[in-house]
Design a protein that fits this description.
single chain, about 140 residues, alpha+beta, three-stranded antiparallel sheet, three-stranded mixed sheet, 5 helices, 6 strands, about 15% strand, globular, binds zinc ion
Length: about 140
């Protein structure tokens, strides 16, 4: 789509004021290539690419990258946090109650973000997050047979 990955990832880190390390680059690319990965999956994928890194270091890097807006953290109620590289468009998620599969859902009203609350209680709203819960196709087929 846009610029070649390795270079642009390092540039994005620099642009966000973060130090560029092999682990951070691998982490961002792992999350972007993945599909709403959890911390365990991210840690093992990053280890495959750059060698040993502690889970604590992965948590800290994820925190810094999320705070810098390079990654987005989603935390469906009752499930561990997941991370994704699709940031800035305020999209929503649909989660399978059975296997915890997660998929992206574009803004419910077709114009992002869904910021028009029926009653905003005087708050200045900057983000809306909708989680749709249901059964993924695999799980609903398994249940009906
Ligand atoms: Zn499922
Ligand atoms: Zn997503």
């Amino acid at each position: 789509m846009t610029a070649p990955q390795a270079q642009s990832t390092a540039e994005e880190l620099r642009g966000a004021g973060l130090r560029v390390t092999a682990a951070r680059v691998a982490l961002i690319e792992t999350v972007r290539d993945g599909d709403h990965l959890g911390v365990e999956a991210i840690t093992s994928a990053v280890r495959d690419r750059v060698g040993h890194i502690s889970v604590q270091a992965v948590y800290e890097a994820l925190h810094a990258l999320t705070a810098a807006g390079l990654l987005r953290r989603i935390e469906p109620a009752g499930s561990p946090a997941r991370f994704e590289g699709r940031v800035g468009d305020n999209h929503h998620h649909i989660v399978c109650r059975s296997c915890a599969a997660v998929a992206d859902v574009d803004c419910a009203v077709g114009e992002a973000p869904c910021l028009t609350a029926s009653d905003d209680h005087g708050f200045s709203v900057g983000e809306a997050e909708v989680t749709y819960w249901g059964l993924c196709p695999g799980c609903s087929t398994a249940g009906s047979s």
